[in-house]
Amino acid sequence: MPDRFVSQPLELPAHTAEADFVRADLEFHGVDHSGLSYEARVFLNRLDADLDTPLEPGEDGGYAGSFYIFGHGGCFGDVGHCEVPTTRNPNDKRLPHPLTPHTKTVIVTEEVRRIRDSTDSDQLTVTVVADVYDVGDLPVGRDAAEPLLFDSISLVTYETPPPLPPVSPAEAERPAPEPE
Amino acid sequence: MNAHAHHAATPKPLLRHRKNVELLRPDQLEALRQAFAQLNKISSNVVTDNRGYQYLAGLHGLPGQYCQHGDPPGSDPLFLPWHRAYLYVFELALRDQAADASLAWWDWTSPASHANGIPQAFDTAQVNGQPNPLAKAPVQPAARQSGRPTETFRSPRAPSSLPSADRIRQILSLRSFSDFTAQLEDVHNRVHGWVGGTMGIIPWAAYDPIFWAHHTNIDRLWRIWQLRHPQRFSDRFLNTALPPFPLTVEQTLNIKPLGYDYASSTTHVPGTHA
């Protein structure tokens, strides 16, 4: 059986018509990718969604998009090999631990706007349904029946487009050269 | 002079072009097959030879475990630069064995892919009575767990469920690098899962020859996005090394100094010195 997750209600954004949001993101934080590979189908206000639920948006909710996990298939080392360090020395120049949890973002602008405009509810419930990919008899790590593991979900809306350059570690200092 | 000999005798430009696998000429596809076959032969003679297919495929997952994915908090997204460096080293290894070989991309959004799935060049089991080196590859003992897998295999889903061209157009319109790389990596994950089998999981994905065509398409899409959205990056990001490859992030940002570019197809004729 695929794994399912139903969130607690998230508050819909209280934007005004004069300052409406131009983008809405569902951010999934702390997503584990140590095991299986799968598609995480994201439904809004569809508490009963499962693998048979059509991948179609609706006026009052429905399918909003998916994120995809390319899994590591388990731990292939001695004891401690797959333990992600909780602290990091600033002088440690090694690249991050490969199993450091990911953040996955599903852009849901139209779906959230449609729900807000067509219902009286000021809340949104997220249902996530995992569709696991077929890797035959290969090792897949932890319990194949429960692929979904993540810390939290955020609904983030923007009144203006996300800033450019982005507020991220890869933020700009100098231009990327072009050879032409 | 037949067509193949004519092409072989024509001097080639220094810049190599990675092409659409659906548009490869027979001699171009044959060069790619020959190069893969030679890398396999090296590995079958001495599995640890660092010019061979097993050594190179083993850098991604098992046993090397070097690949970079995702956006670890407090770190930089290295997915695109690391895989560009990987393709660069792999393509040079191919060309060491077949000078005319270059990587080809699999456009999984194309009508042909949505009708047929994996391109015929990578799907046909045999060519001229011999195993097609683009269809599957062995997996070295050092990468196996409990004795498996011994070779690559696939379990593809319905061709119509491959990513759409509209989805790629949306991603190419994103303006910030962090946004772009996150969404493109997500589609990349989806195609790995779609192919399934050894391609569907990190430890063994790079052993499947279709891995290289898939990632060449990802690299091409990054190239297209770069031309539309020049970015500014921090020194920290630019100076990050990409082990085990002899490149930093900055050295991956421009592909022409790496000796390649993308073209749908190429053809050449002799000039006045021929």
Walk me through the structure.
- The complex is a heterodimer of chains A (180) and B (274).
- Chain A has 180 residues and is mainly beta.
- Chain A has one domain.
- Helices cover 6% and strands 31% of the residues of chain A.
- Chain A has one helix at 109-118, and strands at residues 4-6, 10-11, 23-31, 38-44, 57-58, 61-69, 102-107, 123-124, 126-132, 152-158, 174-175.
- In chain A, the strands form three sheets. In chain A, strands 1-9-4-6-5 form a five-stranded antiparallel β-sheet, with helices on one face.
- In chain A, strand 5 (57-58) and strand 6 form a beta hairpin.
- The mean pLDDT of chain A is 86.
- Chain B has 274 residues and is mostly helical.
- Chain B has a single domain (20-262), classed as di-copper center containing domain from catechol oxidase (Orthogonal Bundle).
- Chain B contains eleven helices and six strands.
- Chain B has helices spanning 3-9, 26-45, 53-57, 79-97, 111-116, 120-123, 165-172, 177-195, 210-228, 235-238, 249-253; strands at 16-20, 104-105, 126-127, 130-131, 232-233, 260-262.
- In chain B, the strands form two sheets. Chain B has a three-stranded parallel β-sheet. Chain B has a two-stranded antiparallel sheet with strand order 3-4.
- In chain B, strand 3 (126-127) and strand 4 form a beta hairpin.
- The radius of gyration of chain B is 18 Å and the shape is globular.
- The two termini of chain B are 14 Å apart.
- Mean pLDDT of chain B is 94; it is low at 1-7.
- The chains are: A mainly beta (180), B mainly alpha (274).
- Chains A and B meet through strand 6, strand 7 and strand 11 of A and helix 8, strand 5 and helix 10 of B.
- Strand 11 of chain A pairs antiparallel with strand 5 of chain B, so a sheet runs across the interface.
